[in-house]
Amino acid sequence: MTALLFVLLLLSASIGAGFLGALTGLGGGVVIVPLLVLLFGVDLRFAVGASLVAVIATSSGAAAAYVREGYTNIRVGILLEVATVTGAIVGAIIAALVSKNVIAIVFVLALFWSAYSTLRPPTPLPPDVEPDAISRKFRLDSTYPTKEGMVAYKVHHVPMGGVLMFGAGLLSALVGVGSGIVKVFAMDRMMRLPFKVSTTTSNFMIGVTAAASAGVYLQRGQIEPAIAAPVALGALAGSLIGARVLPHIKTKALRWVFAGLVVFAGVELLRRVLQGGL
Amino acid sequence: MPPPIPLAPAQRHKRDLEASLATLLTAGTALAAVVLFLGTAAFLRADHSKLLNFHTFNASAHASVFSVFRDALKLDGAGLMQLGVVLLILTPVTRVLFTLFAFLYKRDWLYVVVTIIVLSVLCYGLFGSGLVHEG
């Protein structure tokens, strides 16, 4: 199709993706890759590159707001970023060595898992109060603001958290998602951070992780400007609108619709892989 | 209404850092967005009827940060779009750099080291030559 039509359609679709991603908390990455591959006939390698750029755009836009609110634990973020960016580089290297079908299958599995975890209600864990040696050495324990004032919390299981973050970075680089869900899971369940601290710190880290792998993808020529620019612009715009609208919308029903779409996209991708490959 | 309780110095520094990082992220994203928009407009103005097909992967020519800046200076649409992309990628990198300065200022040597490690890996991703396999 002509460049004009391509860019306009891409912009519109990406605005939708960013909007949905912001409303459901699943992020644009899981939508953008199938969108590009299935609807626009873009090669998976370009799709992942463009999606990573969009992930940087949307998370940087949102991270600014969260950091201001005072929930983000910057030290935890920076420390864990060592793990995520290393994982990202490794993931980017692996991506060049495996076939597109393998990447697609990993993507579909990640897709199904994020659809599932978005629908499952989070079970509250009691906060741990024993001290952790590594948290003490790296001064990770902190406080976060609540209506009653600053509440203290401790950080646990840092090494395990690091391992999970390495995996999150690897996944992000391989399939072009933000892996926010893995990061939140690691910080919330394993490291026992308060939920709002986990989500905001995860958001803080997503951009850096994506930037690590995006650099490699750029060098390999997997970021095509005619795709990545409209996608990033659209996703950014959509996510900013979505964030505005979010407090006024009941997201429960939306999550089911989103999960359904995501599962459908996953099945369709899988079908293509099995019927002769991407 | 009682006067607001002043924050302890450590908390105030944390808040200042957070505010600066937030501004940095917003500014970087906004700048990138403007360049992306201008680049897309320039690209469409020149090539709106060009037929695009990305069905098979062919490595893009806009692949090094230096060549991107060079092409962008020529006001070439695709070059400008890719510059916007590079600016987006550089925004979190700049954020980490800024965090490094903050830790240096506070003489927090442990975290200076941690941040330098993160920065090094990021730079390796963007400029490291061992990452591209030819053929």
Give me the side-by-side strand order of the main sheet of chain A: 1-2
- Mean of residue pLDDT of chain A? 88
The low-pLDDT segments of chain A are none
Task: Spell the H/E element sequence of chain B.
Answer: HHHH
Number of strands of chain B: 0
| Uncertain residue segments of chain B | none
- Domain count of chain A, please report it: 1
What sort of overall outline of chain B do the alpha carbons produce when their principal axes are compared?
elongated
> What composes the largest sheet of chain A?
2 strands, antiparallel
Estimated structural class of chain A: mainly alpha
Mean pLDDT of chain B: 87
Q: How would a crystallographer describe the biggest sheet of chain B?
A: none
Give the CA-CA distance, first to last residue of chain B.
71 Å
Count of separate structural domains of chain B: 1
Radius of gyration of chain B: 20 Å
Beta-strand content bin of chain A = under 5%
Beta-strand content bin of chain B: under 5%
Specify the overall morphology of chain A. globular
Describe the structure.
By secondary structure, chain A is mainly alpha-helical. Chain A has helices spanning 3-24, 29-39, 44-69, 74-97, 100-119, 133-137, 158-175, 180-190, 195-219, 225-245, 251-274; strands at residues 142-146, 149-153. Chain A is 74% helix and 4% strand. A two-stranded antiparallel ribbon of chain A has the order 1-2. The longest helix of chain A has 26 residues, at 44-69. The radius of gyration of chain A is 18 Å and the shape is globular. Chain B is mainly alpha-helical and 135 residues long. Chain B has one domain (10-47, 64-128). The chains are: A mainly alpha (278), B mainly alpha (135). Chains A and B meet through α1, α3, α4, α9 and α10 of A and α1, α3 and α4 of B.
Could you write a compact summary of the structure shown?
The complex is a heterodimer of chains A (278) and B (135). In chain A, 74% of the residues lie in helices and 4% in strands.
